[in-house]
Amino acid sequence: MSNPHRIHLILPAFNEGANLGPLFNSFGELPEVSSFRFHLVNDGSTDNTLDVLQQIDKQVDLKLINHTTNQGLSKTLQTGLLSAVQETGPQDIIVFMDADNTHLPAQVPELVKVIFNGADIAIASRYQKGTTIEGLSNFRKSFSLVASTLFRVFLPVKGVKDFSCGFRAIKAKLITRLSPTELDQIFSLKGFACTTALLLALTRDKSVSVQEIPMKLKYNQKRGVSKMNLKQTSFESLKLILNEWLIRRSC
Prior knowledge:
Elements: E1 7-13, H1 17-28, E2 36-43, H2 49-56, E3 62-67, H3 73-85, E4 93-96, H4 107-116, E5 121-125, E6 132-134, H5 138-154, E7 168-171, H6 172-175, H7 180-186, H8 193-202, E8 210-214, E9 216-218, H9 230-250
Parallel strand pairs: 1-2, 1-4, 2-3, 5-8, 6-9
Antiparallel strand pairs: 4-7, 5-7
């Protein structure tokens, strides 16, 4: 894939020292990596994440932002997004993905291609034909399916089956339409709910088109424990459904 635009990747990292090396080794195998600008936010890691990043910094175009203390996923994503937006042009693309080596770098060009072909947002979806998921517990799969079903019923968005997956590409100019106040509200939600809130905010404009591709999730490649708080995510997701439903009713 050749392109004249810049691809900005936002990666939140908390104690991912064991995963960042393999992840960036995979990035290094992509011919497109020279067009990637990485905005990696180290969220107060207490392991060797910083040491690993110092080596990676010599291999790719990496901007490292440090939180001196752990602030959580939502604030870390906001930090990365604000960093990217400061540097993007109107034709650039922003990609969100995890830093734990469960999302495959090879799918970044696939997502970007969807944008080049006309979509405004591209999502790596767990609910498209051809999806493969390795290493994720049945409980986590069921939890994600229930969440997806609730959003599809109460807050449907054309083209979207997977509302909560954080692996997605978005035209940078869409992000710049959101005010600082709107971004603060979106990222005030704890954990993974903020990624859904961002999607819903962007797609209130019915002209925004979304397309999904089958996801290749390699959860068995992850080293270390999951940082997902299911209780918190459930509460924040239900709060989001109610708030967004009220917003849509008032429009």
